[in-house]
Design a protein that fits this description.
132 residues, mainly alpha, globular
């Protein structure tokens, strides 16, 4: 497959209002949902496009509470970048499985629970965890 670096490329822009940012988030979500069948076929995933859409929905719902305009802009930029890299096939299937399908939520633990374990894994994340 030939990759076209400019495919899905967009000029970086900043939303002037929360309403405009909301529309941009909805457009990004729609682009991800529309790309789900293509992602499944490109990477020969053993899951259905519906499951990929479900995982995409979870990722967007996870950031639903964000209200800071600058944080929304950063999330939009990262989401667009991830979409471009994914659809242009610049990732390996393991990246797709790791980023889309793994739940990054960890159970809350107290300081003493971390202390008894002898490490603070929240401070040290593996390089390939997909957490930015």
């Amino acid at each position: 497959m030939t990759t076209i670096p400019s495919r899905l490329a967009q000029v970086t822009r900043i939303s002037s209002s929360r309403a405009e940012a909301r529309l941009r988030v909805i457009d990004l979500y729609r682009a991800w949902v529309r790309a789900a069948p293509e992602i499944c076929s490109l990477y020969a995933l053993s899951v259905t496009p519906a499951y990929v859409r479900h995982c995409i929905r979870q990722k967007f719902e996870h950031n639903r509470h964000v209200t800071d305009q600058r944080a929304i802009e950063v999330l939009l930029l990262k989401g667009q970048q991830e979409l471009q890299e994914t659809v242009n096939c610049w990732k390996q299937p393991d990246h797709i499985y790791g980023i889309l399908f793994q739940n990054k939520e960890r159970p809350q633990r107290t300081f003493l629970q971390k202390f008894y374990e002898g490490r603070d894994e929240d401070a040290v994340l593996p390089a390939a965890s997909g957490v930015v």
